[in-house]
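[Automated response] Your request has been received and processed.

Submitted sequence:
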Amino acid sequence: MPPEPDPPPQLKEWFDAARYRAIAKELASIAPKFDTAAFLKSALDGLEARTLMQRVHQCAVAVNAALPGTYQQKVRALQKLAPRIGHEFVTIFLGDFVATFGLHDFDFSMEALRFFTVFGSAEFAVRPFIVADQTRALKTMHAWTSDPDEKVRRLASEGSRPRLPWGMRLTALVRDPAPTAVILEALKDDDSLFVRRSVANHLNDITKDHHDYVLQRLEGWDLEREHLRWIAKHACRTLIKRGHPRALKLFGFGKKAEVTAKLTASPARLKLGERLTLAAALTSTSSKTQRLAIDYVVHYVKASGGSAEKVFKWTELDLPARAEIELVKSQIVKDFTTRKHYSGRHRVELQINGQRVAESEFDLR
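Generated structure:
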């Protein structure tokens, strides 16, 4: 299994020397026998070389070395610490502690994760428990779907996502997503958008391996209900960008667009950091209004000289019969942690209802 990408480097400063010292100070006030020196030595030695997620884990390791008592006693001390941290992402080291040192005490640890997720999500920490005993863990997580706290309900969906970004891949659920269906069904009508967004992202994960499974479930939903339609469309966003016919049909984009189209990319030559503007001119050749999903595709030049395409969502619209419309989209061409640009000619295509209908190009220097 390929390693999950680490978050952007600057985020690791959430766990800097000052943060570790603040955590040590709080723990010393909670547990008088807490060994501050041992904690700081473990946390700070080699700090600069560690990524964000390595710093999260090392914080848990340092706590275990410096906090006296049994595993359960240590967790109870950390439960007192949780509301004092004041930073939701930093608080995830508490869940990491449970995942690292608590697999032997399954039920107690799962309850600890339910407690900690209110302060900082335990979505990463619950995954080793799913790997260790999937049936047992998912049964507990299904019970969480009726918890009064939306963060606990979200954990039931987010923690069991097969391909959670930055998280351990749940290979068994990638292979067979059916065991989480009862959790998603319980949450699809949740009052919280926070929870419903997780359901959509969970389903989008599944589409990457079992798109027909997801589409069959969504076809059974009442998509006239606005919140269910939103979940379904968000869940199918990857399929829609790829022009998957069954997904396009589900949302009314199943017919081939009857249009003439022109796409222009300007300027024709630009440097990294400059703005690229795309202009699309569409003319309907149909005697009826058409429902259109409009995307654009950039073929990025690779270091090898080849190219790799990425589909970007543009808009959705109803195009009246024989109507003409002009659309404009712009973006700054710059490097990201997930994408490095290379000089060369970049092709851009206009995609409507899954079909490529026009193209242009620009040179990047």
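Summary generated for your ticket: The mean pLDDT is 95. Residues 9-250 form a domain with the Serine Threonine Protein Phosphatase 5, Tetratricopeptide repeat fold (CATH 1.25.40.290).
If you did not submit this request, please reply to this message.
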